[in-house]
Amino acid sequence: MRITQLAGAVGVLAALAVATPAAAAPSPAPGVSNAGTSFLTAVAINADQQVQVGAVTGDYLYWSFGAVAGQRPDLDITVALPPSTDRTGSQSWTVEVFDGLRRRQACVAGEQNPVAAENATSITLGCQLRQVRSWAEPWDGDPLPGTYYVRLSSTELPEEDLGLPVDVTLALALPTGDTGADQGELAAPLVPNNKPGKVLTTPAAAASAAPGTEDDEDGLFSSWSFDWIPDFSSRWVWTVAGGALAAVTGLIGFSWTRRRRVA
After folding, report:
1. Domain membership flag for residue 193
2. How far apart are CA 134 and CA 148, in angstroms?
C-alpha cells in the first residue's frame, strides 16, 4: 500500500514538473531605441541595456544614467555613417558627459572628438569618467553620485551633408574602481529634490521665524537693528585713507595754482 502511495506521489510530482515551466533566466532589460533632444528630455539608460538609435546628422542626442560612489562610467559609441557616395566631405563628432549641475566632466580615456574621413563607413567614440567620489570640496569639479547626461552630436561637417541618416549604437559600463581610496560620505544630495508648488524652508529661516528664541539681554537696545552698519574691513580702511589723501592732495594743488591778489 505504501509503495503504491509513493508511486502515485512520484507520478504527481513528475506531472507537475512537466506542466510547470522551468525557472527562466532573468531576461535582459529592454533595449532603448530613442534619444532625447535636450537635458530635460534625455532618455534614461542602464548598464545592461542595448541602445540603438536611428538619427540624422545635425541632431543632438541626449541620454542619462545614474552612478554611485566607486563606479567609473565608461561609454562606447559607434556611429554608422551614410554611404560615402552621399557625403561630400569629412565629419567631426563629439561625445560629452555632464553631471547634474550641467558641469562638463573630463574624459580620462576614449576618443572624444574623432574625425571621420569622407570614405569612412563608421566612427567610434568613447569616454571614461573619473571614479565617482562620495564627497568633494565645494570648489572641486570631481564627479559625485547622481545623474549624468550624455550628449552626442556632429560638430563639423559640410552643410550639404546635414540631415543624412545615421545609426547610433551606445554601450554603457559601470565598473567598480578602488573603493578604498575614497574616505568620506556625501551629507546631502548634490541636487536637492525640489517639489514644485512647495516652499522649501531652511533651518536659518525657521529659527528666525520662531518667536521668543532670542535672549532679551540688552534691554531697551534689544529692539534696535544695526544691520545697516557695514562690517569694517581692510577695504574700508583703504577707501577712507585714499579719500583723505585725495582731499589733502586737492587742497595742496589748489593752494599752489590759485592766483594771489596783488595789493
Report:
1. no
2. 15
With cell 583723505, the residue in question is 244
Residue 143 lies in a domain: yes
Could you give the number of structural domains in the chain?
A: 1
Per-10-residue mean pLDDT, the chain, length 263: 49 46 53 92 92 93 94 95 90 94 92 91 94 82 91 92 93 84 62 62 52 49 59 75 92 80 59
Domain ranges, residue 167: 43-178
Q: Is residue 228 part of a domain?
A: no
State the SS3 of the chain: CHHHHHHHHHHHHHHHHHHCCCCCCCCCCCCECCCECCCCCCEECCCCCCEEEEEECCCEEEEEEEECCCECCEEEEEEECCCHHHCCCCEEEEEEEECCCCCECCEEECCCCCEECCCCCEEEEEEEECCCCCCCCCCCCCCCCEEEEEEEEEEECCHHHCCCEEEEEEEEECCECCHHHCCCCCCCCCCCCCCCCCCCCCHHHHHHHCCCCCCCCCHHHHHCCCCCCCCCCHHHHHHHHHHHHHHHHHHHHHHHHCCCCCC
Q: What is the pTM of this model?
A: 0.60
